[in-house]
Write a structure and sequence with these properties.
By secondary structure, this protein is of the alpha/beta class. It has one domain (8-113): Ribosomal Protein S5, domain 2, CATH 3.30.230. It has helices at residues 14-23, 57-74, 97-110, and strands at 8-10, 25-28, 32-38, 44-50, 82-88. A five-stranded mixed beta sheet has the order 1-4-5-3-2, sandwiched between helices. A hairpin with a 3-residue loop joins strand 2 and strand 3. Helix 2 (57-74) crosses helix 3.
């Protein structure tokens, strides 16, 4: 069963991605790079970028779904009012869902955007 994100929506426009890249802060680990930028809204917006270097379209789409699911499962722990962009790295193509979830958790703690890290 598909469950929608409660507190977030997708980041879709190129200018929004560029704003997060330029003005946001970022942290990286082996599988992901995470950018965060305050957006002044009462909700979060999430964007996921996965380049052709990562793999073919099936691999990229699978990884995008894994990152979105990892965020959704931890969504209630994130502070509200941020734009997040996750950039998937090539090493992620050989990892499991648990590794992606751990990466999202680790990067959100390092960026201090989790409620429990206040």
């Amino acid at each position: 069963m598909y469950r929608k994100m409660k507190f977030s929506e997708s980041l879709k426009k190129n200018r929004d991605f560029l704003a997060v890249y330029r003005r946001g802060t970022s942290k990286a680990n082996r599988y992901l790079v995470m950018y965060a930028l305050e957006n002044g809204l009462q909700k979060n917006r999430v964007g996921i970028s996965c380049s052709k270097k990562v793999g073919n379209s099936v691999v990229r789409h699978t990884l995008t779904r894994r990152v979105r699911e990892a965020y959704r499962l931890q969504e209630e722990n994130f502070r509200r009012g941020y734009d997040f962009v996750f950039v998937v790295r090539a090493a992620a193509s050989s990892c499991c869902q648990r590794d992606i979830e751990h990466s999202v958790h680790q990067l959100s703690r390092r960026l201090s955007v989790q409620e429990d890290s206040v």
